[in-house]
Structures are given as C-alpha cells and as structure tokens.
Amino acid sequence: MNNTIETILSHRSIRKFTDRAIDPKQLETIIQAGLAASSSSLLQVVSIIRVTDKSKRALLAEYAGNQAYVESAAEFLVFCIDYQRHAAINPKVKADFTELTLIGAVDSGIMAQNCLLAAESMGLGGVYIGGLRNNAQHVDELLSLPQNTAILFGLCLGEPDQSPELKPRLPAHIVLHENSYEPLNLGDIEQYDETMKAYYSSRGSNQKQTSWSQQVTGKLSGESRPHMLSYLNKKGLAKR
Amino acid sequence: MNNTIETILSHRSIRKFTDRAIDPKQLETIIQAGLAASSSSLLQVVSIIRVTDKSKRALLAEYAGNQAYVESAAEFLVFCIDYQRHAAINPKVKADFTELTLIGAVDSGIMAQNCLLAAESMGLGGVYIGGLRNNAQHVDELLSLPQNTAILFGLCLGEPDQSPELKPRLPAHIVLHENSYEPLNLGDIEQYDETMKAYYSSRGSNQKQTSWSQQVTGKLSGESRPHMLSYLNKKGLAKR
C-alpha cells in the first residue's frame, strides 16, 4: 500500500486542534493541491474564502450550529460556487441553471478533498462543515458574496489534538453495484447497524446508544434546510 | 514534497487508455478509498455503479456525447446520489430537498476524488464524465435507478496510453479570497487568457486558437442542461 492510499484510508474527521498555526508554505501547498483538481469543462467555478478574522470566525462557528472548532482551527476555508467571475468577463453568461449548481457542488467536493488529503498527508487534520448552510444567508453576507456565487461548506484545518477511531462505513457490497442498481438487502443494513451500535457505544468520546438506521432516519425524517432553494435562487443559481 | 502531494499536483485527465485491465485487488483498493471519504452526517448518500457490460458501455459513451473512452477505459464507474437506501429503511424519509441534492453532489465529488487519486497513485489514470448528464434520463433507465436516486457523473479509469501536459489553472490569487469576497480583477484574467492561449496552441493534441474567457463564455452563454431540474424532481430530489 502506497502513502497516498494510506493517507486516504486513515482519514478521520478532526474536531479538536492544538493552537499551532499552519506553516504558510504548507497552506500554499494545500491551496495548490485544490487548484490542481479536475474542473468540469475547465469552468473553474469554485472560490475559496480563507477566514482569518477572529470575529468572523466566531460568527461562523455560531452560524454553523455552535461548532467551536470552526473558531479554534488554525485555518478555516469556505468553499463557494462562483459564476461571478464568468459573469464579470461576459454578462451574456447565464448561471441560473440547476446543472451549474450541480457542477459547482461536485467540483467543490473534488477540490476540497485535494486540500484535505494534502493537509492529512502532512500530519494535519480537518473536518468539513456543512453546517454553514444552516444560516446560508448570514454566512453569505458576512463574506460579502456577490450575485452568481453561493456558499457551500467550510473546511477546518489544523494540527490534531485528538486521535479518534476510524468510523465504520457501509461495506462495498452495499455501495457498489454492477451494471444495474441492485435493491438494498435490509439484512445487510442490520449487520451494519450492529457494527455502528458497537462503534457508537464504545468509542472514546461522545458515546451513544444508537444505530446507523436510527441516526439517518432521524436526520431525514424532517425538512432538510428547505431555505437552500430560495437562497440559491436569490443568488441567481439553481433555477430553470 | 510527499508522494500524496506529488500525486495530487501531477493530475492530468486521461482520455486514452491501453487495453490492460485493472487488477481486481487494485480496483478493490480504489473502491475502499472512496468508502473512506468524509460523508455529511454519515448519511452515506452515494452509490457507485460499475459498468462492465460492453453494450451498456457503448450506449453510455454515446449518451455522454460520443466519448469513446467511456467505452474503452478498463473501468467505468457511475456515481449516483442515493437516498433510496434511507427510504427503504424508513418510508418517513423525505428526500425532496435541494439541500439533499447538494449533499449528494458534494459527497460524490469527495468520494470520487479519493477513487481517482488512489488510482493515480498506482500509476493509473482517469477522467470525470459529466457528459452523462446530457442524457440523464436515458442513463438512469439503462442503469435501472430507482426513485430517490439520480446519476451525477462517470469516472473512466485505466492504464494511461497518453501523457498530456499539465493544464494551467486559474492562479491562487484569483481563486483564494481572505475574509471577504474580492471582486475579480479583469487584468488577472487577461494574463491567464494569454497563458491558456499559449497552452491551447502548443499542446500535443487538439490544438486550438482560443482563450479561457472565450471558452467559458461559449459554454455559459446558452442553456446548461436545463432538463436536469425536471430530471431531479422526477426522481424525487431537488424540490422544496
């Protein structure tokens, strides 16, 4: 197994960081790693906002649902869909398609994962912060995003001050299909639920008695950030 | 510079492959790399459909806009948003939110990039195929996707039979902002356009006389897959 695969397979989300800063050269490499990512039709529709302002960090931590590590991480990067560049180059550009928001979301994930893996390969750690979308409009205003841009998620980066266990994932035979979608075998989920029950009840911190099925049903039984559609439309994205 | 960063920074999209198959153990590692990726709230909303059926490959190549490498690559993986698992576990699950489609798109990008980097670290190469969305409904039917699932993009993987130049990206000072969105300086784009003109006119294959601004304006002046919104809504996603 090579180092890249080792880095990928040993991923853990880090939510507790030392107060050590990230070396500027390391940060530069992390950003270059993001820029090297594939980009759909080379549109390059992602902007990254590095938040160094302490008061903005404190507000972002609050907007994300009081996630303290958004404030305490050495670096916090906010990934945004950005068609404003293209509109500035030529006002004929039409950004108001769901398709373009999909491109922005997929390409942001690809780019951010390059950044996170580059950081992890240097012994740093991080965690994605989708919670920024809890208050998308407030985050948008705090970062002064123009029309044709929208916030997607944040990425905390820093020196890990914790070493969490690997979190078990759905096994390949559930996620991977061949040639056609293969309907879920509920027995497979029962097995995974047992694995996750054991994980949740025995892990080092934040132990709980629950299964994956209970967790996701709880998450998905209610409305999921229903304001996101009007937010995206207001920014000139995701319509048609 | 460590091997992971070297792998990330030397990415090139590969569109010409030898006929050598990918070793099953290598493919297993590539899939495990994908599974190790971060998942929003551990919802695990991505399914991968590995297409080995030759006739399906031929159709997918056509649906993607006659991209022959979709048929010729050793492996072709289709990444899909999948809330059908969650709905099968509990019918109370509501998947029809734009937010959930965003999660699916971001998490698919993160997962697929782990797969691509794992492959690249082994000396393999690949390219993302967003063109599948040109005919989303046909691809969906070909792969028998159920409700609450939607196709996003494909990933070709195989042994490279070409060695393209690195494609210049927008420089960091354009993509990276600090604390607030910094409006585009058109002078910076003029410089990048010169870089891209030189790249397009001198690269080994498919040389052309164009700039980045001309390219993206062409791509974005018309409608961008306007059928995607109705496709996603039909699958029970992206509304509200």
UniProtKB/TrEMBL annotation, chains A, B:
<keyword id="KW-0560">Oxidoreductase</keyword>
<dbReference type="GO" id="GO:0016491">
    <property type="term" value="F:oxidoreductase activity"/>
</dbReference>
<dbReference type="Pfam" id="PF00881">
    <property type="entry name" value="Nitroreductase"/>
</dbReference>
<dbReference type="InterPro" id="IPR000415">
    <property type="entry name" value="Nitroreductase-like"/>
</dbReference>
<keyword id="KW-0285">Flavoprotein</keyword>
<protein>
    <submittedName>
        <fullName>Oxygen-insensitive NADPH nitroreductase</fullName>
    </submittedName>
</protein>
<keyword id="KW-0288">FMN</keyword>
<dbReference type="InterPro" id="IPR016446">
    <property type="entry name" value="Flavin_OxRdtase_Frp"/>
</dbReference>
<comment type="similarity">
    <text>Belongs to the flavin oxidoreductase frp family.</text>
</comment>
<keyword id="KW-0521">NADP</keyword>
<dbReference type="InterPro" id="IPR029479">
    <property type="entry name" value="Nitroreductase"/>
</dbReference>
<feature type="domain" description="Nitroreductase">
    <location>
        <begin position="8"/>
        <end position="158"/>
    </location>
</feature>
